[in-house]
Design brief:
This protein is an alpha/beta fold. A hairpin with a 5-residue loop joins strand 2 and strand 3. It is elongated and about 75 Å long.
Length: 150
């Protein structure tokens, strides 16, 4: 299964010139734990250049008594961005997320434009559904066996 099949296509984005408080308000408004920082071109193409998470804000800024209004998103975002291609296989994406120690990554199309975001939660949901299907298969197999051999 490809990353593009399970990623969330509704990505909350922000410009790196915005301040941290604006990013936090966006996260709260949309009930998300991150914003993807994009560079937007004249033709409305959005290319991911960074990510800012709620954890970045709390651990790196608030816990260190940094005024969130004193910094821009660009000052605090993660520049070492892992991006996944929407055609990547999920198992390969899991390996990349694990290797980088991140829980989410922007998903891009073949032109490098933002297409979605993949979070560990999306993968867990997929695996949960697959395990549930396997449990149902086993139950069904037992029912069929009881009917054949009462």
């Amino acid at each position: 299964m490809s990353v593009g099949e399970i990623c969330n296509r509704e990505v909350i984005v922000i410009d790196q010139e915005e301040n941290i408080s604006d990013a936090a308000r966006l996260m709260r408004k949309h009930h998300v734990g991150n914003v993807v920082v994009v560079r937007q071109s004249d033709d409305a193409t959005r290319v991911p250049v960074g990510i800012l998470t709620d954890r970045d804000i709390v651990i790196e800024l608030l816990a260190r008594d940094v005024d969130p209004d004193a910094l821009s998103v660009g000052d605090a975002m993660s520049y070492d961005l892992l991006t996944l291609n929407e055609n990547d296989e999920v198992d390969e994406a899991i390996k990349q997320l694990r290797a980088r120690g991140v829980r989410r990554a922007p998903v891009v199309n073949g032109r490098g434009e933002l297409a979605g975001i993949l979070a560990v939660d999306d993968i867990v949901e997929l695996l949960s559904e697959q395990l549930s299907d396997l449990v149902e298969l086993l139950k069904r197999e037992q029912q069929v066996e009881r009917q054949r051999h009462p």
